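Sample pair:
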Amino acid sequence: MRLTVVVVLLALVAVPSAVASEEQPGSLEVQQELYCTDCDTTLAEATAVSYTPEAISFIEDRIAAGDKKSEIKAKVAERYLGHLIAMPAKPEPGDRPTLADLEGEVMCPVCDTTLDQSSSPAARQIKNFIVQRIEAGDSKDEIKDRLVAVYGKQILAAPPKEGFDLLAWILPFVGLVGGALALGFLAWRWSRGREPRPPAPALSPALERRVDEELARYDEG
């Protein structure tokens, strides 16, 4: 009972805070919820693009005008279309995935590395798609399913360990063990082939004398 009261009180405290954040956002808070596609980070951490100061100035102007946080993010995303994407407001850990959660588990289809190691146009396109699906409320598995539907199961850094996909995990180990056994067998055959053969048994004196006589008779004839 006491635990229930504590949870309710915390919820009552959190709700006004969330409302205040939406109604009266800070500039840094908004920047942290805008994803920069040109530098693979949030606007708050973006320093390598020329439009960063202008975008921040626009955010501060909209805050001064009384816009809500969601409205500001939508306007920034529209103004810098393709460069800045609105992200969900502070996703709870374990509730919604983040781009970092998926970058290491999704492959770039053109450079055979995970997204967190690639800056190719294809990788950036997939990252943008992931951010958009996170904003739409998709779970990690739902985002992966959407990517598999478009690119096939090879888009995942690790195939599911079930059904036929289990072969993708087993076959490399089977091939490695089989190759080692084959090399060991060939090495054994090669070593056996290099061993000196035992000398032929010597002839008995009687047989040797008979052979000599036959050879002498052959020479006389």
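The first strand starts at residue 34 and ends at 36.
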